[in-house]
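**Backbone description:**
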Amino acid sequence: MSYLSHFNLQEQPFRLTPDPDFLYWSKQHARAKAYMESTIWLADGFVVITGEIGSGKTTLLQSFLSELDDDVVYAVISQTQLTQTEFLQSILTEFGFKPFDKHKVELLDMLNMFLIEQYSNGKKVVLMVDEAQNLTRKVLEEIRLISGIETHKEKVLRIILAGQPELRDKLDKPGLRQLMQRVRLRFHLGPLDRREMSEYIDHRLAIAGCEKESLFGKDTLETIYRYTGGVPRLINTLCDTALLCAFADEKDVVGLDDVLAAVKELNWEEHESNTGIREKLQHLQQVAPENNHVTRIDIRADGEVINELTFPPGRVIIGRSPDNEIYIKSKFVSRHHAQLIIGDDDCMIEDLNSTNGVFLGEKQVKKHRLRDGDVVSLGVHELVYYDLRQDEESFEDQLENTIDDEVDDDDDQDSAINET
């Protein structure tokens, strides 16, 4: 017997996979969707939607796509760690082309001809880029250029960029001012407030077939908000676990003790938005390496850094399959190409019997102890290794020197006062 039949539910109410049928239309989500819909009737529609992880961006995008009319042709790009050429290839692939043997100039010509053809046939074309915070500056510049493709009457490509808050920071940099001049509308999805969170829980339960007024006691809501901060994905995780706890104890309603048991099971602490720690964390991230992360890997393509990743000690798999910790989309990279073995004092890279091998300079290596600054080649991509332990030691030295300087200044001031 599952908890679905125990609580008389037709389907799982708090699953994490995006489902437009379960989307709760808060004022924020409704406004964000209205902004996206405006791209259809604005010929030069260009919208940027940002939101915290788990705020419901992907579900919102799916809901928008599911309601598009037949006269709208769209491409969705969600893998964004791409070079300019790979980005153009991904767009054309979404539109049904096979552009992998084409040069950039040919790709741009194919895209231009396709857009003009669709316009002539009365079609509207929308390009949607999810996880856009990972786009490089050069790819963002490419987006600016293709957004200007037009007939003698109007522009022919609508664009929606969606991503995490880092996208806002990236777009606000002076070097992307020309791109931002093209953007018609911007909107940021924040967390739900307490009232919205309560409505969100009831809404998902109702869609799942719940016949009770609510399976969650009113005394549970404040605790749920305290540990989730109103973030939909966290609400789903905590509520689902609380239902399992109540089911295990054969209860008909989820009580406060079940929510607290779920919190303990998940090993959660209060959400950072409720503890005042968020500002402290942001400050620390600006001045020090990420806690426990001792290795940084820069991924380069065509000499340009397309992604930066940091890792704590442990094992990190590199390959073409999306389940890898370091995901490289390339035909020259095997599904599971190599691994990093990050120890407390060193880092090894080991080839996992890949097709094209692992190279350090011109030398192919099977297993190699990396040094700070080493460049490893996997096909046309390069991985640059940095040992953050050196940076951390430098940071601690700088901090200690700063403290010493402040103490010296205080002593000097005291001496001056005493002399006076």
